[in-house]
């Protein structure tokens, strides 16, 4: 029984390696990352491939994620009530601002964009949906983190913080001060912290019990967003409030 559970865990670890890799991987590389023998990794790959979770490129014998995972991912999104529920709100905000609008959700100590509507402008900023990133990394994720418990924030900030631009926050004290400001004003407004020349405005979405596990954000080139910050901030915060109200949240 323990051997079976170990195999399941190692299979999950193997699949998750592809979350942070944009390329195919071979047995040797997977073996090194998993700290397992090549023989053990090969057995895992054969099992996963037989079920469609992994596929092998016949040209180079490298492996990538299979289409079964895409089907499962689509099923998760279809069953994710928040994604469906917030679509009209995102659509309204996108039509009004003409900028990129995203729904961000917390998953453990990380954040994921689970839905987005792209800007109609030919020059626009884009985000990669369904990719994980630290809860301190973007305006959308900080709008979630700021309203979590102090213990949770401490847990997230354990270890070295990743920086993305010269303007990224570089230590926990700096971030804690930023989170306090977000709590006071009820939204996050940031420029250049994740991508230079990009400004994001985000506000928390409250569940019926008052917890925050999601946010809505509007993101665009700073030279276009900055002149309209007061208007865009009002639209983003109002949209988040409307969603929270419909979810049953009452102050």
Characterise this structure:
The chain has 251 residues and is an alpha+beta fold. The protein is globular. A hairpin with a 6-residue loop joins β1 and β2 (63-65). It contains ten helices and eight strands. 30% of the residues are buried. The protein has a six-stranded antiparallel sheet with strand order 5-4-3-8-7-6, sandwiched between helices.
Radius of gyration: 20 Å
The biggest sheet amounts to:
6 strands, antiparallel
Beta-strand percentage range:
15-25%
Derived structural class: alpha+beta
* Low-confidence residue ranges: none
The helix-strand sequence is: HHHEEHHEEEHHHEEEHH
- Number of helix segments? 10
Please state the average pLDDT score: 91
C-alpha end-to-end distance: 49 Å
Instruction: Say how many strands there are.
Output: 8
Spatial shape: globular
Strand arrangement within the widest β-sheet reads 5-4-3-8-7-6
Helix percentage range? 40-55%
Observed structural traits:
alpha+beta; two-stranded antiparallel ribbon; globular
Sequence-ordered SSE layout with sheet pairings:
Blueprint: H1 2-17, H2 27-34, H3 38-50, E1 54-56, E2 63-65, H4 67-79, H5 81-97, E3 100-107, E4 110-117, E5 132-134, H6 139-145, H7 150-156, H8 172-185, E6 188-191, E7 198-206, E8 212-221, H9 222-225, H10 229-246
Helix pairs in contact: 1-3, 2-3, 5-10
């Amino acid at each position: 029984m323990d051997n079976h559970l170990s195999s399941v865990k190692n299979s999950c670890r193997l699949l998750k390696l592809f979350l942070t890799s944009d390329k195919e991987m071979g047995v040797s590389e997977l073996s090194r990352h998993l700290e397992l023998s090549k023989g053990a990794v090969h057995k895992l790959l054969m099992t996963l491939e037989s079920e469609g979770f992994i596929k092998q490129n016949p040209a180079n014998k490298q492996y990538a994620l299979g289409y079964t995972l895409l089907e499962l991912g689509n099923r998760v999104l279809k069953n994710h009530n928040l994604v469906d529920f917030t679509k009209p709100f995102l659509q309204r905000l996108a039509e009004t601002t003409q900028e990129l609008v995203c729904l961000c959700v917390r998953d453990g100590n990380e954040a994921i964009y689970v839905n987005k509507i792209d800007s109609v402008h030919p020059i626009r900023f884009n985000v990669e949906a369904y990719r994980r990133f630290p809860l301190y990394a973007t305006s959308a994720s900080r709008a979630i983190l700021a309203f979590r418990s102090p213990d949770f924030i401490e847990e997230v900030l354990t270890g070295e913080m990743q920086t993305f631009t010269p303007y990224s926050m570089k230590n926990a004290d700096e971030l804690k001060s930023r989170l306090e400001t977000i709590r006071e004003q009820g939204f996050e407004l940031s420029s250049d912290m994740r991508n230079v020349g990009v400004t994001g405005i985000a506000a928390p979405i409250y569940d019926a019990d008052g917890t925050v596990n999601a946010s809505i954000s509007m993101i665009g080139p700073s030279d276009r967003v900055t002149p309209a910050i007061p208007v865009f901030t009002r639209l983003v915060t109002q949209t988040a409030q409307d969603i929270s109200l419909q979810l049953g949240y009452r102050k």
